[in-house]
Amino acid sequence: MSFLTRIINRSYNFFSHIPSSNFNTAYRSFSSRSIPKFPMNNSFRASSLFNQKIFHAPFANEGTTINKTRLIGLAFLAGILFVIPLKANAYGSGISSDPAMLVKPIIFSASKDIDWVRQCIDQYPEILWLADESVRKTEEAQASLQGSYSEQLFDKKFIEFDRTIMTLHSLKLILDGSDEAYLEFTKDQQEDTKLSRESFQKLHEQGMALLKSKYLGMSELELMQALEASLVLGDIGKSEKAREIFKTYGAKAPDHDDFHEEVIQILQTHPKLCPTFDRLSPAAKQLITQSANLAHYGHITHIEGGPDMFSKLNSNAVSSIALSFDFFVHICDVAGALGHVNKRSSLVCTEPTYLAMQGVLDSCKVLASSETTEIDAYNTYLSIRANWLGLNPQDRTDRVLTRMGAMLRLFTPEDGTILKQAVQKLSPKVQAKIIEQLDVPQKEELERTPTYMPAVLVNLANNPQLGKSKEERISKAVTLGLPFLVRVLETHKEHILAHKADPTIPLNFNKAAGVAKINPKALSNEYNIDPEGNVIILDF
């Protein structure tokens, strides 16, 4: 006898001994005893069916045959009500691999604004880990003063929470691909740098090609869930709550991307620590594991390091679909980067940013050939950026200025001229040190790429204390920022040679970027580098 048949028989026996006038009470009793209470989103709940008129129809004075027919119907429904939540919970625990049991992707929700955000939280509870004052927020750009979703929900500003919500919203708009979605995505972008309709369409096509790839046998639904899960879990390393949870299992990397990679490995054996990961299909879990910390595309985009940034990609083990998936997640992450400033439109994913990201992707694909190396990929991208700035990728000073231009999000020959004029204001000795530390023709001396150097320069270039015009502020970003970065890099390399620093822990300029935003001149102060690689400005 099948499982479902046994449930129906049990249900029939239960209801057949109850007077017809008490069917409603009996159904409540049966459902409370028989149906497991699993925490489910968008689930099929017995109480909602019970409130419908079907369970309130009078049974008194009806014939025996009709009564039996209703009994069988009730018994069948009770059996279904038992099985559906049980199977749904089994899928969430990794027991089932039926894609039909997946929770509906949040991008399909018709809700809008704060109601949609509440649904995001219900479906992806890990987002709340970012709604905490101890979260390690990125010190770049000023947050909006009011109206953010975090303020509406918690009466406090939680920058990383708002950013993550915006990444999901960006995913929704890109996969939508309609004219309305494009208008919303670009509504608050500046006209001279606005993402073109053609480029938005190409982003949409990239996303749809990924969804239709059937990678590892996955359906479009499974791949959508994997995309959403990747965006939700991507900044988990910034949460002190998450760090406390996973510390017991061995996750301890200071860098949040390294921590994310550790967490994904831990979830292979402890999936229930993360409900979002736990309910994914086995194939989706495998894809997220394959792409965890595959490359830091933001580091590549801003040329924060040397050829080693491409090292993990130079492997036969990396599939083209895993690369496409990881890079598409990165695109959505970039699009939502200023979600704490603007909650509806992407302020970051402009036409120049789009072109830069596509340049990064093209450079990564250089490694598809067995005859190319990380140096080839690095020089391919550096040449792209140098050409935009009107600089010579073969000249050592221009190579350094190209890196600075990439970090400062500069794209035109006019910007290149400003950089060249600014660096000439520095002494020949300082210029020589800059070239020594920042031109990486072959292999980076540091084992790990320093982080948040661009945030220091961008915050200087955006700081009104440094001038009224863009040209003045960029010039100051070079003359104040470059010497500071070079001093710290020199110190860090000396510490590594003297075994005073762990070469596997990347140098982190995030706290220094916060200082650049408030008091730029303090970058001339003395500084310390703590055991986690954080650069701490003294007497600030």
Task: Describe the 3D structure.
The protein is mostly helical and 540 residues long. The protein has helices at residues 3-16, 23-34, 46-50, 64-92, 113-123, 149-154, 159-176, 179-186, 197-211, 220-233, 240-247, 256-267, 275-278, 282-291, 297-301, 320-335, 351-365, 374-389, 396-407, 413-423, 428-438, 453-461, 470-497, 510-518; strands at residues 527-529, 535-537. Strands 1-2 form a two-stranded antiparallel ribbon. A hairpin with a 5-residue loop joins strand 1 (527-529) and strand 2. It is globular. The model is unreliable at 1-100 (pLDDT under 50).
Question: What would you call the structural class?
Answer: mainly alpha
Helix-strand topology string: HHHHHHHHHHHHHHHHHHHHHHHHEE
Low-confidence stretches are 1-100
What's the alpha carbon Rg, rounded to whole Å? 28 Å
Average pLDDT score = 82
Beta fraction: under 5%
Q: Characterize the biggest β-sheet.
A: 2 strands, antiparallel
Strand order of the largest sheet: 1-2
- The portion of residues assigned to helices is 55-70%
Question: What is the tally of helical segments?
Answer: 24
Shape: globular
The number of strands is 2
- For the record, give the distance between the C-alpha atoms at the N and C termini, rounded to a whole number: 76 Å
